[in-house]
Design brief:
Low-confidence stretches: 1-6, 100-109
Strand content: 25-35%
Mean pLDDT: 82
Largest sheet: 6 strands, mixed
Helix content: 25-40%
Shape: globular
Number of helices: 10
Radius of gyration: 24 Å
Length: about 325
């Protein structure tokens, strides 16, 4: 049977870790290593990049290599919070049903009602983190900072590409949404060909370079490839069924859950970095029962945590994106 529903609890610092960590680390891009994770970023993290040639002909003297350059970028996590209010009645039946075990398919039942609420909120947080990683402050329909699915939490990968556009290896803006064909203006096959063909040479020759696209874009690619190999006017079963295209021109394809639509990237995945501090004193997970305060049946659930994104090397990235 469910325990008492007097559920005011607050977890701060390391005590909040069991609730904050799953909310962040379960984000699709983090869990699948589509971005590099840095868990102990207190305020700033400086990432250094060394470029140039270090090999020279052997000789007796020490000759410093003059064409080496050292640059750096800074990853600064943003302080974030989630505040939600729920009616306990809406969750009471779900919680009590879990206690019976009937139909419960997860490995572990939350030990009490407040943990149940915090884990519910954690699932929502990880969805928001995933979306913000790729298009925080980025509108995938026109490249602006709001609308079109943009989330105003922190600057995501695509927003940082716009800000650093002059340093990009290749950045092509196209009009209108992508289509499932080889149309010269909107076709995803055309855009992918440009993405790879005009990428920096260092990226074209990198065996770890990967194409990043949304799941919708993969769907369009699948339909386009099916149309190419079928001359009867229908779709080829080899591309409409389970055999999703996983490569294009020799480059692996990944589809992060939060990736912006009508956007293609070619880069090493370790070029994208997400920073947070899982043990910060700022972190907090709280459940506040409002019954004793205002006689309502409401409960307030809050989380505080940090997160931010940075790109190590813009000059090696190739991008095709919708701008109108």
């Amino acid at each position: 049977m469910a325990d008492s529903l007097t559920i005011t609890s607050t977890y701060a610092g390391e005590l909040a870790l069991p609730y904050i960590a799953p909310a962040i680390l379960a984000a699709n891009s983090i869990a699948n290593n589509y971005v590099s994770l840095h868990e102990g970023v207190k305020k700033n993290m400086v990432m250094k990049k060394l470029a140039g040639s270090t090999i020279q002909a052997a000789g007796c003297d020490f000759n410093s290599t003059a064409d080496m350059t050292l640059t750096e970028v800074i990853l600064t996590p943003t302080e974030l919070m989630v505040n939600e209010q729920f009616c306990k009645k809406e969750f009471r039946q779900d919680w009590e049903a879990l206690q019976t075990g009937a139909g419960f398919i997860n490995d572990q039942i939350p030990p009490n009602f407040q943990a149940f609420l915090l884990l519910f909120l954690a699932n929502k947080v990880q969805e928001g983190i995933e979306k913000a990683i790729w298009h925080g402050n980025y509108n995938s329909t026109d490249g602006s900072t709001s609308g079109g699915g943009a989330v105003s939490t922190f600057d995501g990968v695509m927003r940082r590409i716009i800000v650093g556009q002059s340093d990009m290896g290749f950045d092509l803006g196209v009009g209108n949404a992508f289509t499932a064909d080889a149309d010269s203006n909107t076709g995803i096959l055309t855009h992918l060909d440009r993405l790879v063909g005009d990428a920096p040479a260092v990226t074209q020759n990198d065996p770890n370079a990967t194409i990043v696209m949304s799941r919708k874009s993969l769907f369009l690619l699948q339909r386009a490839m099916a149309g190419l190999v079928d001359t009867s006017g229908g779709y080829s079963p080899s591309f409409v069924g389970a055999a999703n295209p996983s490569t294009f021109l020799g480059f692996n394809i990944v589809t992060p859950a939060g990736m912006a639509n009508d956007t293609l990237l070619l880069s090493r995945l370790d070029n994208f970095h997400f920073g947070t501090d899982l043990t910060s004193d700022f972190n907090q997970a709280a459940v506040v029962d409002m019954t004793q305060t205002d006689a309502s049946d409401n409960v307030r659930v809050a989380m505080r945590f940090t997160g931010g994104v940075q790109i190590a090397d813009l000059s090696s990235i190739s991008c095709v994106r919708r701008t109108s």
